[in-house]
Every structure is written in C-alpha cells, then in structure tokens.
Task: structure prediction
Amino acid sequence: MSSVLNKRDKQIFKSIPGPKEFPVLGSSLQLAKDPLHFLLNCLDEFDGPFRITVGPSKAIFFDGPNYVEHILLKQHANFSKLTTSFLRLKLFLGDGLLTIEGDQWKKIRGTISPCFHQQYIQNLTEKINSVVNQSLNNWKPEGKINITNSISELTLKILINSILNTTIEIDYEKIKCALKTIHSELFTKIMSPLFIPLLIPTPTNLKLKKGLKIFDETIDRIIQDRINNSIPSEKPDIIDLMMENGIDSLKDQILMFFVAGHETTANMLIWTWYLLSKHPNVSKKLLAEIKGVLTSDNITFSDIKNLKYTKAVLLESLRLYPPVWTIPRRTIKNTIIDGFEIPKGTSAILSTYITHRNPKYWDNPADFNPDRFLEPNLQKISKFSYFPFGHGPRQCLGKEFALLEGTIILAQMARRFEFSMINTKITLDPKLTLRPKEDIIAVVHPYNG
Ligand code: HEM
Result:
C-alpha cells in the first residue's frame, strides 16, 4: 500500500528530519544492504523520530519505551499491521494470524488461545523433553557439529510434534530448507521498491514457489491424517479447535505457525550458544544451576520453574539478538505521542534490536549479563524498553511455549555436552528474522563434570 498523504500530512512528514534520499528509491538501497547500520546511523544523527522513504511507503522510525507503549498498546487501535511489506507477505502466506485483523483475527486468536495458556503449555513439557532427548542421543560425542542445522531441525521437530501434534512422516531436511528459502527470499521481496508478482518466473519467485509447494503438500497431509485418524482427546490441540470452530483458513494458519514459530525459536537458541561461547563465566554459572536442579534426563515443569538463571540467559540473549528485530505498523488515524504527530497513512517502525541496545534505557547495553533478568535487578527494567515478543493485543501468542522449549533445549544440551566454537567471526543477517549469516560450527565433547 503506497502512502497517499493529504497536503497537511505531507507537510508534517516533510518537516520530520531524515537522511538524504534517492528519488523513487528513497532509502531502499541502504535498508536492503545493511538496515541495522543504516538505522543506527540515522538515530545517532537525528536523536529522535526520523523519516525514511521505502519505495512508495513513507515511514517514521521510533525508538524508546514511550513510543513502544503507545504504538503497541495504548493507542494500538490507531495502527494497523497491514504495512506495504505485510500486505506483500499476505500475498504469499495467506490469511495466517500474523497478517489478519479485525473480527477475523479476534475469532482465530480466541479459538486457539487456550492452547497457549500456561496450563496447556506446561503439559507439553514431557513431549518436548522426549523429542530433545531422542535428538541429542544421536549427536556424536567428540565430533564437529553444525549447531545452526542441528538446532533448526530440533525446533522444527518440536513444533510438529507438540503444537501441531502430528506423527505423520515428515522430511525434516526438505521442510527446513523450504523454510530457510521462504525467510530469506520473502524479505528481499517485501523490501524491494519494485514488486514482481509470483506469476512472473524470476529466480526468486521460482525458489519461493518451490518452497511454498512443499508446505502446501505437507500441510494437506497433516490435515488429511487428522481427518482420517481423529481421536477425541481431553485437551484439544490447535488443529482440533480450528476444525471444531469451522476456521476455513486452517491451511494458512498452519503455514503461519511454521513461519512464526520455528525460525524465531531456533535463532534465539543459536544466538544463545554463540553468546555462551564468548562468555565462559556465564556458561559456568548456567551449568552450576542446571546440575543443581536436574537429577535425570527427565525435566518436569517444576524443574523449569527452578531453572531461573537458564531462563535469564535466554531473556538476555533475546535482548541482544532479538529474532524479530523490527515491528512495523501503518497509521490509520493521525496520532499524537508526546506532542509528536504521526500522519495517517505513514508507517511507524519500531526496532527491538535498536531499543534493546540503547544506553538511554540500558546500563552497559553491549554486555551479556543475564543477571539483569534476575530479582531484584529485574525490577529496574522498564517494561516497554524490552519487547522481543512485542506488546499489547498482538503480542506473540507463542511466547510461553518458546521460553519453555528454549529452557528445555538449553538445559539438556548444556548438561550433556561441552562445546568449543570453531567460528571466530559471526555477521548479522537481518532478514525476516535476525540470524547469523554464517552457520555456527562447534566441536562437541561429552560433559564429564
Ligand atoms: C523466541 C521466539 C519468538 C519470538 C522472539 C517471537 C516474536 C514475536 C513477535 C515480536 C510478535 C509480534 C509481532 C507484531 O506485533 O507485529 C509475534 C507474533 C506471533 N508469534 Fe511469535 N515469537 C517467537 C516464537 C513463537 C512461537 C514458538 C510461536 C508458535 C508456536 C509463535 C507464534 C506467534 C503468533 C501466532 C503471532 C501472531 C499473534 C497475533 O498477531 O495475534 N511465536 N512473535
């Protein structure tokens, strides 16, 4: 959706400071090349909200808890999720929860929410733990391991076995590759000033089509299996609930869970191992907690509650490397925040990565210090300076699930193996999610402590 502003709003937009831009392209090239560097430079230069043009869209970048609170919570009704990029995303991913609004969104979120409440999630502990144990049993001790691939496969298995609750045979390698393609190619497509419809056979479109076809077939098999083998259960899962409530976008919803629930969690864990490899003192403290709490391969939900430092490690990793590094909205009504007027029709952009690292809101923001997320320090964190899962009504539905899964994987990996990272330099690759450009490779040794 291009930004068609009236005369007054155009003037307001023009009066906002912003970088020098190319005609037509605006800042698209800089954003495509190195978005984090570009946004950080602008923030340094303008020290407050600044405007950028991305293709046909006019956007304003906001940093700081007050803007986060107003845009995502207090004045959320003045903002839509359907920015140009999200509308493009919808063309590929359909009507998944992530990209719908209004009554359609309310109905589906309300239908599946029970499967994300604490009580439902805690019952998944055993299932998640068993998938983790089975996978880790196959890791070769004393060998080189591609942490990126192994964690990606593990989180995919967990999503399929627990949230989607299916036991059909899945080609994990194929699905993992298809997801990787969708994540990187879709980002290029949604950010490009020139949008080429999927019908035109460009190399990117062909790759995307192939990836989406793999999902189409797999999701059909998941649904067909459910229809053929439906067993009434005490606790219906998301597919049961959507079928019972006649949700006709079932296929789109399942695809959305693959896209929203897999790469995000995998990236959280990949970045966590990267950080642990650089901070042996944190690793030591982590291991001490895990050895103190866990007595066998079996993790129970009450163990999870006692793994406080383990959870703090994940929360601190999400601060430094938030997998969802940007949260965009489109302004549907002129909105004033702190005397600053945001014209209707512009996009309001927030960035977890940038706000989480701003020294205005964090002491020593570059330090990896999980103690920030332990009491009493936790009290000092301003709620809206930290938003890896968003805030407000559109906050991540899978937050508790992701943290439970992350805690189990991290604890089980740490108590079984010691890792020595082989890569020395990792580069950021901010696409649909923020991930390391290079795969993380490590040598694993069985833990002998
Ligand atoms: C560390 C892992 C994860 C992170 C950092 C994360 C982050 C986010 C963020 C920031 C949003 C809000 C976007 C916005 O406001 O525009 C979101 C939405 C969402 N996430 Fe997650 N997520 C994670 C894992 C998961 C998992 C495991 C699932 C499902 C199993 C999931 C399902 C969803 C859904 C369904 C939404 C859309 C909610 C709505 O619009 O009502 N996420 N996620």
